[in-house]
Structures
1.
Amino acid sequence: MTAWQRSARVTGLVLGLALAGCGGSEDGESPADERLGGVAQPDTEIEAASSEPAPEVATFDEPVSVGIDARLRSDRRLMVEGTTNLPEATRLQVLVERELSGVRWQERTVVEAGGGFAAGPFGPGSGLPDGGYRITVNMPPASVQPSEVRARLGEEGQHLRGPLVQPSRHGLGQVISASQRFLVGSEPRHTTDQVEVMEVE
């Protein structure tokens, strides 16, 4: 074999090895990442798990009840507590109004586990003067409630029912309003209304 033939044979062998190194796997297919353009593809099992529907939440199906209680602290400021069957985490607004002057104090609160809620203290630093007060507990529209509460009450509160339910003044569905009148003082005035009389602790 001449030197020229040996040189041509070696050159052909080198070119063959170089092409084999660039060609991918032995069966002639490109590597998986090249076939997919180098972008990792999601696993089909993970896709199936994420597409499962969220569990359904039971709608609210009983008349709304709200119980209001209040106590006068030693500084003559008012603490309001209550119970309700509204779902846990429902946002409420507690309002205390003095009947004689119309002065109001308000505070936001939420329904806790077990159906309780609390707000206060209400009143000026000098304490509440003797007289009549109205405590009102309102539930704002469902649109401002947490998602888990909306799921039970309806996006417009359409699952709410009972005598405490009323339409929102702003056309945002149904809301709740409950009120109770209280008389504060050691010698409250005579009244024929259904009220609770509170004295300083």
Note: Residues 3-22 form the longest helix (20 residues).
2.
Amino acid sequence: MMTPEQNRIPTLYEWMGGMEKCRQLTDAFYKKVLADPLLEPVFRHMSAHHQQLVANFIAEVFGGPAAYTAEGGGHAGMVQRHLGRHLTEQHRRQWVKLLIDTADEIQLPDDPEFRSAFVAYVEWGTRIAVITSNAEKPSIEPGTPMPEWGWGVPGKPYIEP
């Protein structure tokens, strides 16, 4: 018989390797972004702290600590940062490609359930970013809760029998 702890479903944050993996992902990813001819102009003036903010955001959305809400203003703060950036579908697709390539390179879990949840969030989040970047005013009110991403339809990670 399994104990409650053995039966507990980990968060996406725990499954991916916690804050260390979130930082590794964003550090490696933004190196690619700054070397990319399409994305570099969009990100060339980002702060030195940008990667850590994005790592904190991903961590919080995936069930980790609420560091982004504490420092970055939560979901409304992230939306606000995209206003006036005028991102295109081409920007979005390249951003997604580089992030997924980076996930492979740093060896984020590659089980189908985790990758399904990861890619679903990346697709959702980047589409919100494009919409917001072209909006005249924020579509999300201050205090709107952070999105909480979970395992989706599978409901838990794939563990080989």
Note: DSSP finds nine helices and no strands in the chain.
